[in-house]
Amino acid sequence: MSFANSAEALATMVGNTMFAADVASKDTMGMALLLCAPGHARMRMQVRALHLNGHGICHGGFIFTLADSTFAFACNSHNHNAVAAAASIEFLKPAKLDDVLTCTGQEQVLSGRHGVYDMTVRNQHDEVIALFRGKSAQIPGQVVTP
Amino acid sequence: MSFANSAEALATMVGNTMFAADVASKDTMGMALLLCAPGHARMRMQVRALHLNGHGICHGGFIFTLADSTFAFACNSHNHNAVAAAASIEFLKPAKLDDVLTCTGQEQVLSGRHGVYDMTVRNQHDEVIALFRGKSAQIPGQVVTP
Amino acid sequence: MSFANSAEALATMVGNTMFAADVASKDTMGMALLLCAPGHARMRMQVRALHLNGHGICHGGFIFTLADSTFAFACNSHNHNAVAAAASIEFLKPAKLDDVLTCTGQEQVLSGRHGVYDMTVRNQHDEVIALFRGKSAQIPGQVVTP
Amino acid sequence: MSFANSAEALATMVGNTMFAADVASKDTMGMALLLCAPGHARMRMQVRALHLNGHGICHGGFIFTLADSTFAFACNSHNHNAVAAAASIEFLKPAKLDDVLTCTGQEQVLSGRHGVYDMTVRNQHDEVIALFRGKSAQIPGQVVTP
User: Fold this and answer.
1) Which residue in A22, A96, B134, C17 has a CA-CA distance of 20 to 30 Å to A45?
2) Is D34 a member of any domain?
3) B97 lies in which domain range?
């Protein structure tokens, strides 16, 4: 197996392992993990009644949570434990009941222990509804034992 | 009733009205609204199993969601509809199962349609676990008809 | 002339007009404008003695200023007046005396009056030294009369 | 001398030492350091022709720079070398020629090596023109040898 394939295979294993244990993302929010690749991840969540706030639209915190989960998979994909140190989000459009939100995220830079990752959340019409930037910090340990 | 009392009473009414309809904050997340005053709000959430991510700690997205809800009450407290345009968060300490998180938020500036609000999330040991800054934009409409 | 060429030509004219009047960027900081295209800009600045702070490295505020200027050209490139509403920056590496810093910026989304623009600042070794994200708001008026 | 007085005296010494060497803030921008106390600083800058951008108002980068300098004094005030890791700014009002800008900053939290500091920039009418939040990281070394 080539090194590139190994990195891909490892990221997939990290993603599956983390997601299986992630009650918040999987069970509470109802997200699906579509892809976990080196420095890259994609997740999906359909807006359901449980996600609605007092204005009857998806709570912005849950749009953030979708992006934050995707960020977690992207920044742990190298199999070095990493945590979110900070994040910012721009809310561009509301998300409504039954909308299908897909978040795609990409590592922008990984410099020593710190990385910067950009996430884009789109709805089923391919409209950008939020832009998220996360800063990660690596901590000791690995997600899986290769 | 003095004007000051009116503003306080109106903010309380706004808070109760919004919270009663907020499935995401009240039912899904299990938050309590402790205070909604002019430009000011306080909420509480205990970390339960449903909040845990793959590392077995409270999902950062839910810490953000607690702060984002508190922000929503603070920026709607004047009874002009307002939405979150953007937000940023610094994660300072993890939150663990059974921790009781209290978020307090304060309007820093309200200039025309735009406001800036700062939220502080503390645990039951009064340790700051996150700092959140939200930017609001007023939109047409009112929360309640006074 | 095709529409595409017109948009390019207009952006170039906007860039030249704004830069000619920009004492801060041109004269005080010593920046050069390399490109102003629709939703896109590139600027360059060499670190000189006047840019150094008390640690003897380039003041972070001037790295921000390079990115903020580039952002201004990118978000005004459509010839609708636009101002910076907010910005954030990650400082990844220091910049030293004589370093040549190049900032490239790209529109990520333009939705109604508001846009999000990402800038990357690199040194002469092509190392990323800062990542900047700016939020613009369009205001009435045009930069040039086409 | 009491411990409190020592901390105050040390912060003053740190401020004076850093500022004397800070060509960017002192000479290029024309700032004055009004106060450097433990976790706290205040600086002032008058908007002059050299600060104006292509719209004839103070370059936002220089408003950021004023806040970033004040942040540097606040986060180095304990005499542990600290650098800016990231910052965000909200621009609320423009600053015009001859305006006198005063930035006051305060440590919000210092947790291990990392701190969060909030700066408020006001003009001579006491209007808030910008809010800045900076994240610091301590690095080895001291500013002065006590």
Assistant:
1) B134
2) yes
3) 3-138
CB spacing of B61 vs A24 below 8 angstroms: yes
Distance (Å) from the C-alpha of residue B144 to the closest C-alpha of chain A?
Answer: 12
pTM summary value: 0.95
Model pLDDT, residue A1: 44
pLDDT of res. B51:
98
**How large is the greatest C-alpha to C-alpha distance in chain C, in angstroms?**
52
- The Cα B65–Cα A60 span in angstroms is 7
Query: Is pLDDT above 90 for C1?
Result: no
Q: Give me the tens of pLDDT residue by residue for chain B, a chain 146 residues long.
A: 455 579 999 999 999 999 999 999 999 999 999 999 999 999 999 999 999 999 899 999 999 999 999 999 999 999 999 999 999 999 999 999 999 999 999 999 998 899 999 999 999 999 999 999 999 999 999 999 87
What CATH number does the domain containing B34 carry?
3.10.129.10
Subunit partners of chain C (3 or more CB pairs within 8 A): A, B, D
**Cβ within 8 Å, pair A56-B83:** no
CB–CB of A88 and D86 under 8 A? no
Going through C47-113 in order, the beta strands assigned E by DSSP cover: 82-91, 100-111
Is D26 within the bounds of a domain? Answer: yes
- The answer to whether residue B127 is domain-embedded is yes
* CA end-to-end span of chain D: 14
Nearest Cα neighbor of A131 from B62, C79, C107 is C107
